[in-house]
Sequence to fold (434 residues):
Amino acid sequence: MTPTGLSMDVSTTAKRKVLISGASISGPALAYWLHRSGFAVTVVEKAGALRDGGYPIDVRGTAIEVVRRMGILPQLQDAHIDLRRCTFLNADGSEVASLTPSTVAGGTEGHDLEVRRGDLAAILYATVRDDVEILFGDSIDTLDQSGQGVDVTFRSGQRRTFDLVVGADGMHSPTRESLFGPEARFHRYLGYCFAIFTMPNTLGLSREVMVWNTPGKAAALYAVGDHDNDEVHAFLNFHQPEPPFDALRNPDAQRDLVATIFAGAGWEVPGMVNAMRDAEDLFFDTAGQIRMPHWSSGRVALVGDAAYAPSFLTGQGSSLALVGAYMLANALAANGDHTAAFAAYERDVREFVALNQALVDSGAATLFPTTARALEQRNTMLRELVTMPPATARPAHSALELPEFAGHRRGSRVPGYDRRSVPPSGAAWARPVR
Fold:
């Protein structure tokens, strides 16, 4: 496949140097499109090497069209995790309902993709590693903007000047903090904490998810491989009215908090808690969003989770990162003036971001009920879905008109999308439960 690229005006962009902080998803995606438009791109990543592994993530809606135009859709299709069942369980481990994943998560079966985060990162990295400068094991220490550029001092002591800097360094972005102030100003806490880690596949699960619930608590085992796969992804989620600030930077406190919350739980939860104690890849965080009035200041802009993290409750973080990177690169390629480019980026993407972030207001309460009554209502809906015909989903994550590309007519949309028919949630069953 020959990728369809951004229209290039090398005469106005060839000499512009851009530093991107972060080499996960939005960073390499942005680097790819900027390089195609004639920019000189440097990516800095604090990790010493590309991070592999990680939990499964979704690529959906408009993001499918973005990766198609990058030429990496076939690789992502090869990496697609073909989950077959999602089984919900009662407190005692008995079955509530077993459904296809698309029934639970919404989207378009056979079109949307689910891949390991590490696989997506590796594929993106491979598209740019020979074309852009990548600095592993380093990070931005200070930024000093002027009318002519941004003077950057790296942690390594290296000093360089760039025309533009983009923070693609995640929800807890140091770039955002240095430019706009503490994360607390922009963080919307959604009332949940979660722990993710890998553990032995003692149940012999195969391409399936098992979800256990009691009010305010959930545990899940996620098998992305066949039954002979040695490991599964484990997920422990719980309602917490206030964020546990003391635990966020203390792994021992995180383990103690999760163990206390899930003490006395049934099913396989005690074994999951024990495995969490020894897990070397434990990731603990709060469920939250980043909401900012502006995504840029001067010559520095933000993209992906750094600017508009939607939270894992939406399943849209990776898709937003891919689409946001594409739109930012398109705006910079089309505008020689960075101020105009950043304004166009925000104007064209903000409604799309708002639609995706709004998914938590209906879907999260249904997926993780906090009361016995809400849990029973959720379970009743799940049982009904077993016998209902599949719904035709037109999720909010497809609600973006992409800019014109070479070979595409003006105003083209993702096939099958009708902007007038966007429901409030991407999940067919995710109605508010109070």
In short: The radius of gyration is 22 Å. Residues 127 and 362 are 37 Å apart (CA to CA). DSSP finds 14 helices and 18 strands in the chain.
